[in-house]
Each structure stands twice: as structure tokens, then as C-alpha cells.
Amino acid sequence: MNVGSEYSGTGRGFAWVGRGRELDLMLAALEIPPAVVLVEGEPGVGKSRLVQEADKALTGRGVRVVTGLCHPLREPLPFGPVLDALHGTADWLPPPERLNPQAGALAPLMPALAHRLPTPPPPPEDARAGRFQLMGAVRSLLDAVGPLVLVIEDLHWADEATRELLLLLARDLPRALGLVLTYRREDLPAGVPLLGAPYRRPPGTSGAEIHLTPLSEDQVHDLAAAVLGPRASTALSRTLFERSAGLPLVVEEDLLTLTDRTRDTRPGPRRGTPVDDISVLVDAAVPRSLREAVTARMAGLSESAVAVVEAAAVLAVPASRNLLTEVAELDPDLAGQALTEALRAAVLREAGPGLYAFRHALAHQAVYHEIPGPHRVDLHQRAVRVLWTTQRPPLVQIAHHTRALGDIPAWLRQAEAAADQAIALGDEGTATTLLHEILAQPRLEGDLRTRCALALARTARNGIDYTITTTALRGILSDPQLPTAARGEIRLTLGLLMFNLARDAAGPHELEQAAEELATRPELAARAMVALAMAHQRSPQEARAWMDRAEQVIRDSPDHAARAAVRATRLSLMASAGDRGVWDLVDQLPRHDPDPEVLRQTSRALFNVGDTALGAGYDTRAAALLGESLDLARRLGTLVVVECLGAIDLLRLDWLAGRWENLEAEHAALTAQYPDMAGAAYDAHLTSGCLAAARGQWTRALDQLGRAADIGEAATEAEWKLRAAAGIVQVHLARDQAQDAWATITPALRLLRTAACWTVAGALVPLAVQAALASGHHQVARDLVSEAQQALDGVDAPAAHAETSIARGLLLQHDGDPTSAADLFDRARLTFQAIGRPHHTARALEQTARALASAEPHTAARQFTEAAAVNTALGATADAARCQQALRELGLDRPAPRGRRSYGDRLSPREAQVARLLATGATNKDIAQALSLSPRTVEQHVAGALRKLHTTRDDIPALSAAIDNP
Asked: What percent helix, strand, coil does the chain show, rounded to 5?
């Protein structure tokens, strides 16, 4: 309740002070949906109050708002806080026939709304399929009642399933949804991001990140004056501020104390006279301590009200009147009066229809720790006894109480039962938390440890935190008593996480061990084998051998998911080999199978084939496959690897298609979103290096490409190493450093031959030929071209064939046959043009022009001009300058008019080129090499550009802004 400009002597409402900017920021973000607003702050700082004020403002504007709360102890219910919030949409739902039929899956979980929802679809037999079904149902319902603001408070207490649902929503919001999430950073699980994975708002999504800080002393005075009026002296406000450290909740507790204790009847100098407010606070002995402030509030309660409050403290979750009555062991009528007293004293609050809890977590903790130990034990015992009598015993809460009693054997039994219940309901987040707690116990009985370890491994396969999960799995594997088959299953999960998430080169070793340990579990052994077939450091022969073993193992298996995994891998290997038959088989992949594991394998196959299509040069087809794979992965909600790698490939498509404007920023966002994914960091550095090379920033290019190479060295993919090497060689050749180029290319060629990945690393071949010719290794160049042609014979890889045509053209040009060389260069140009790669097209066109320069200078001039224009449009400053330099050498560049044209205060075209390079951090030497200018000329252009832009080269942001807004 907001007291506003008038003060209330009752202290039952508090003014809204010190948060105007934050409220405006939240409302501005939510005004333009879709939007995501994150509100972070310590306990008692005012997160809930900010949300309440926003709720009032939004409701006044006609915007619908629903709220869900997370609790530290929650019974297994997938997406419980979100479902709680959705109950508030009852009055806004369209008729059931206008809802997406998928929404009917929520009816069993929301009986109060069942009559407003479509008929429930048949429940899937598989719990994960049910979870996938519920995710889609939640999203469809949110979409149907928009425009809507969904508020989820105290997200630090959310389970993993709720976090994953909110992560999916935040990444792909319904167009009319605003999402507000409040949390305490310090109470998030260690090492776990807010939404389970790092999050960055996608393009087109507005939002804000609000960090609430304590109030200032002046703001505390305003808050006190609104309640106490003239009594709020400067000295009292200072005392309130010092005691509270600016936390509004602590100030409010003190103000409640002052308004309830206006007079003191204790003997004093003048019995019955008003007691000084500061003295009241001193006597309350709560310096900076909410715990003691709550204790003072409790002292004014009757014995029965204290009993109710203590029962609420022990129960630790919002509880019904009946439950509080039974745990407190009170007469029902007396308990009702006691509960009303606690509510009026603002010790408890109504947390939902018929549910009661503390006003905040600090108050709960303060009361709980003040309960004498023996009495606290009695209350926990009563809680266990009462909870077992409920219609559906809350196993998580029962486990909590048994642990609080110190009965570890009983707690272990209850915790395992609660974890099993959570897994059966598809709530893997709650299950994972419980299993980690169990496995952290020393000296666990062997069978229990094995059961829990296997359960954790099965839930961990779809987890999103690499470090926590792999650490836990390694700890389990260190147990020498672990049965062999169980060890194999756990090791399989560890190896898959290492290989898929971190691209750890040790991952295949774990998978090989798992395959042997799973001799009695053929379906799981096949999973290890197909993963080994996909391991990128293996030769095609090794890959085929592992595939043959996998197919042999599951030949007679009824396990559809295992067969789907083998099929997906077979298609991936066919695509890598350039087998045209893969396209028809991809079209036959199941997209709507009821088994979510089969759909996961379909998504994996679509990604792998799309990724290979991208490398081969079928960019349009790759974009379609990658998009389909991403859509399916997001629907499933558990394919973090596919989501990340698919997003990386789509950014790579942007690079190839010449969409460079925001490419580095998008890579940075993706890297922040997936910090455990080596591929995100690798491609970010590689792209930055290639962009820098195209712009002539040689120092930055080598730095970024070197970082990519370092990541590639620790990874399993040969392609990563080769792409980084190609970028570095290109920079060395552009700087006429032939020997450095040859030193880099030599080990890369050995790897290319070993891995036999000619289709996806074809760009290395013309660079290797150029480096070999420049350093005198002519026969090596000829042998390499012959080897590449032989390897690609009959292989469906247009990009690799185009690169081989350039390599062959370089040889012919070196041998004195420029006409034939030009034909091959032009063939490559046409191929790249058809694929849709403008930078590659311009490079091939430039090669054609160089081949024709002597015999057909005017044709060459036209081609150089066209290549320069393409490069300029792309922002490839160095490439454009190289073409323009070639034109000058031909003597066919456009003659300048007599006399120097005056540009006044505007940048000349050359100064603009120089300024753009300066804005990227390029040195004068970099600029001279990039633009083929002398150092003295560069110095003159730099001085002129900086003078006209009224800035210095040290102020990069100002320089960039000046270029954008001349």
C-alpha cells in the first residue's frame, strides 16, 4: 500500500521513494513487447515492491499482469511457478475452440481452468515427451492471452525445469509478452547462471537489467517522514539509515516498531510521557539487524500467534491454515484468531489463496533461528507426521524435515523417493538438486550410490552446466565399487558432454572406455560407438569401423531411440563424404515422432547434414536444414549443443553471404550466452580475424586467428585447425611473407591428408599452392592439386571444387598459360556467385583480372573495378585497395581532374578509408599495407582525417561516432 504524500500514523503503508528511475526503466521496456526485464538485488532491497508498483501502473494502462513465486522447498511439478501464474489468466482466456489444442495438456495440472482449456491430448508414455508437451502448452497459452506481462519472483529458488522453460521463452518470446524476473544474485546455485545458461536478449526484444541498491540517507528520511510526519527528525532518519544500511525492508520494520510503540509505560523520569523514538530503537537492540527487529515484533504477539508463526518458520513454504493449525497443535478456532493476529502484525502475509508465509525470507530465517532447539525438533517431527497424512505427501518437504532432524538414513530414503518422483513427473531440475545432495554424503551405501549416480547421469545428458555436471560425474567414476555397466553408462554421459560441449580431445577416450564397459548394454554401447564415429580426428576408415560395430550391436534391438541415433550418424557421415544420396534420406527423417529421443536424433542429423552442406557449398540448403534443426531443438528444450552450434553456423552463413555489419557483436553475444561451448569462442575469434584481414588490420587479424588456432589445437575437429591455419596463411601472403606462410601451411597439409576432410577445408588448397609457389616448392604445389582433384572426384562439394579450380588456375598462370588460368578462375567465380558468397566471388574475379591483365587490359580493368566495388560494399578495405592498386599499375584507373579537388571540412574518399581503419585500431603500418600506400602518404591522410573529425586516434569511440555522423 502506498501512503503517498500524506503520512499515516499507523505505519500500515509505506511511501514509494527512491525507485522512480527503476520504475520508469521497467515500464519503458515493457511498453514495447516482446521484452525481458531482470531485477536483481539483495534481500529486503525492494524487488517485490518495485514489481507491485509496476503492476499497478500497467494495470492502470489496461495491460494484463500475472505473477508466480518460486519457493526454496517445492514439490515436483514441472514449471510450478509459471503454472501458478497462469491461473491468473482465467478471465482472459478465449473459448477452448479458439485455443491451440496443445494448451489442453495443462488441464490436468490446472484443474481450476480445465473447463476453459481444450480437451487434454493423450499423455505420452515417456516423461520427457510429457515435459516437451507441457512446454509447448505453456507457450501457446501465454500467446493466446497477450498482451501480457508474466512476473516470476525469487528466481534464485527456481528448479532447473522452470529455468529451462523461462530460458526458452526469453530466447523466443511470444510477440505480445513481457517477462519480468526477480532474483538475488548471491542465492543463485554456485556456478549456475540465472536461467541455467548465459542469456542475452535476442534482436527485436526490448528489456532492461535493473540492479536495486540500498536507499540513501535522504531517501530513508523521505520514507520515515511519510509514516511519522513531523516526528521524522534528521537525527531519527540518520539512526534509521545506520541501523538498516539503507535496506527498505529493515527501515519499514523499524517504522512498524515505532508506530506500534508510541508510548512506553515503563517507569521513567516522567511516567506515561512519550518515549523518544531513537530511545525506542536503542532499547529494541537491533542495530543493522532485521533478525532482532522481527524478534521485537514477535514479542508483541500472543502465545498462540507465536505458535502459528513458529510453525510457518519450520514448514518453510507457504502453508494452509489447516497445516499451520496441526503443526502448531492449536484448537482450530484459536488457530484462526492467532493467524489473523500474525497477519495484522505484518509478521505473516497471504502468499496465495489460502496460503500463508513470511513477508520475506529474512524474517523467516530470523524466527526459525530463534526457536529453541528442542522445540524446533518437535515442530519438525510434527511436520513430518502431518505431511504424511496429506492426500499426496510432499516428499521434498518431508525429506527436508527429516534432514533437519539429523536423521540422515531417513533423509536419504526420503530424498531418493522425492528424486524418483520428480523424474517421473519430468521435473529433472528438482531431481538433480536432490541427487547432488545425496551423492555429496560421505560413506554412502553402495547400491544407493549406484542408483543415484545412474539417475544423475541420465538427467545430466540434457543439462546445461558443463562444469558442475562433469565434476559430479568424475567424482562418481572415482568410486572403485561402482558396477561395470553402471560405470559405463555414467562414463558415456561424461564422454558425450566432453565431446559435444567442450570439444575436449579426451572425450573420445572416455567414450571408448564406455563402449567396452557397456558390453551388456548394447543400446548404450551403440550410442558410444556412433559418437566415436563422429569424432573428428578419426580417419574415414575408423569412422566406418565404429559405424559398422554400432549397426551390428543394435541390429535386432527394439530400441527406437538407439536406432535413430545410428541412423542420424550414418546420414552425417554420408554428408561428410559428399554422398548425394543423403538428401532423400534427410527428407525421410521423422519430424513428429512421439518419442522425444527420436526427435532429438532428428534434430542432430539435420544439424550435422546442414553443417556439412555449409562446408560443401550448399548455403541455401544449409540455411534451411539448420533453421529446421534449431526450431526442433528449441521445441524440445534440451538440445543446448545443437542450439549453440546451429547459431554459430547461421553466423558463419552471414559471414559467407557478406552480412558483416553486426557480425562481431552477434558472435560476442553468443559467446557470452554459451561460455562452456568451445565452438562459440572459436568462431568468434576466427570471424574477427578474417574481418580484420579483409580490412587490412594485420596485427589484430593474426592475434584473433592465433586465438582461434589455440582453441582448435585443444579440440577434436581437424576442420577447426585447418580453417584457422588458412586465415593465418592468407594474412602472411597478403604481407608478402612467403616463408611464414609456408611454415604455417606445412603441418596443416599433413593434417588435411590424415583427416581427409577435403570437402570442408578446400579453401586451404589454393592458399597452400600460392605459398608453395612463392617459396619455391613448385612440385609440392602440383602434387597437392592432383591429390585434391583425386580426393574430390565424384564428391558433391561445389565450394571445394571451386577452390580446386583456383588452385589449378594458379599453377597454369605460374606455368605461363594465363588464358586457361583465367577460364578456371572464372569457373570458380560463377560457382561462388551461384552459392551466394560475394567475398569469394570478388576474390575469384580479381584472380581472373590478374590472369588477363597482360593480354586483355581493358577487360581486366573492368573486372578489377567490379571486384573493388564488391569489396568496398562489404567493407573489405584492404581487398578493395589491392584491386585499385592493380588498376593504377595497369594505368587504366580513372584519371583525376587537373589540380587537387578541395573537400573542405569533409573527408576525402581516401581520408574516409584511412579513418575507418583508424577506428578499428589499425596502425599506420597496417593502413599503408592495406591501402598500398607509402608510410608518408598515410601520415598525411591520418593527420587530415583526425583534424577534420576533431578527435584523436586514441579516442576510438569518438572516432567511430565521428565517422558515422560526419
From this structure: 65, 5, 30
Cβ neighbour number for residue 649 with a 10 Å cutoff:
24
| Amino acid of residue 516 | E
DSSP-derived pairing of the beta strands 148-153 and 348-352: unpaired
Q: Where are the alpha helices (DSSP H) in 696-763?
A: 698-714, 718-734, 738-755
Enter the C-alpha cell of residue 886. 592493380
Question: Using alpha carbons only, what angle is made at residue 360 by residues 359 and 364, rounded to the nearest 5 degrees?
Answer: 95
**Taking the CB of residue 235, how many other CB atoms lie within 10 A of it?**
11
Q: How far apart are CA 595 and CA 585, in angstroms?
A: 20
Q: What is the pLDDT of residues 352-407, one digit of tens each?
A: 889 998 866 667 778 888 899 999 999 999 999 999 998 888 898 999 999 999 99
Are the beta carbons of 762 and 804 closer than 8 angstroms? Answer: yes
Question: What radius of gyration, in Å, describes the C-alpha atoms of the chain?
Answer: 34
Low-confidence ranges of the chain (pLDDT < 70): 1-13, 74-76, 126-129, 190, 260-275, 281-293, 296, 359-362, 426, 460-466, 468, 501-503, 536-538, 637-639, 892-904, 920-921, 929-930, 932, 953-966
Place of cell 496441526: 326
Q: What is the largest CA-CA distance in the chain?
A: 116
φ and ψ of 488, to 5 deg = -65, -40
Cβ atoms 930, 919 nearer than 8 A: no
Residue 244 · residue 284 · CB < 8 Å: no
- Candidates 501, 463, 457, 496; CA nearest to 477 is 457
Amino acid at 260: D
Residue with cell 608518408: 936
Cβ-contact 949, 962 below 8 angstroms: yes
Closest CA to 853 of 821, 805, 900, 899: 821
Render pLDDT for 731-790 as a digit per residue (tens, 0 to 9).
Answer: 999 988 999 999 999 999 999 988 888 887 888 999 999 999 999 999 999 999 999 999
Report the candidate in 129, 87, 131 with the shortest Cα–Cα distance to residue 107: 87
How many Å separate Cα 141 from the centre of its chain? 24
Report DSSP letters for 145-190, one per residue: T-SEEEEEE-GGG--HHHHHHHHHHHHS--TTEEEEEEE-GGGSPT
Could you tell me if residue 64 is left (phi over 0), alpha (psi between -120 and 50 degrees) or otherwise beta?
A: beta
- Residues 868-877 pLDDT 10s: 999 999 999 8
* Mean pLDDT for all residues in the chain: 84
The candidate with the shortest Cα–Cα distance to 290, out of 44, 18, 49, is: 44
Amino acid at 628: E
The length of the chain in residues reads 966
600 by Cβ neighbours in 10 Å (0-12 / 13-18 / 19+) ranks as: buried
CB atoms inside a 10 Å sphere around CB 672: 14
C-alpha angle with apex 574: 568 to 578, nearest 5 degrees?
145
How far apart CA 11 and CA 631 sit, in angstroms, is: 53
Entry pTM: 0.57
β partners of residue 39: 182, 210
Label each residue of 227-255 as H, E or C.
Answer: HHHHHCCHHHHHHHHHHHCCCHHHHHHHH
Residue 663 C-alpha cell reads as 557480425
For residue 334, give the 3-state DSSP assignment: helix
The amino acid that residue 535 corresponds to is A
Task: Find out whether 236 and 225 touch, Cβ atoms under 8 Å.
Answer: no
The 3-class SS string of 569-609 reads: HHHHHHHHCCCCCHHHHHHCCCCCCCCHHHHHHHHHHHHHH
Measure the CA angle with vertex 814, ends 808 and 817; round to 5°.
Answer: 80
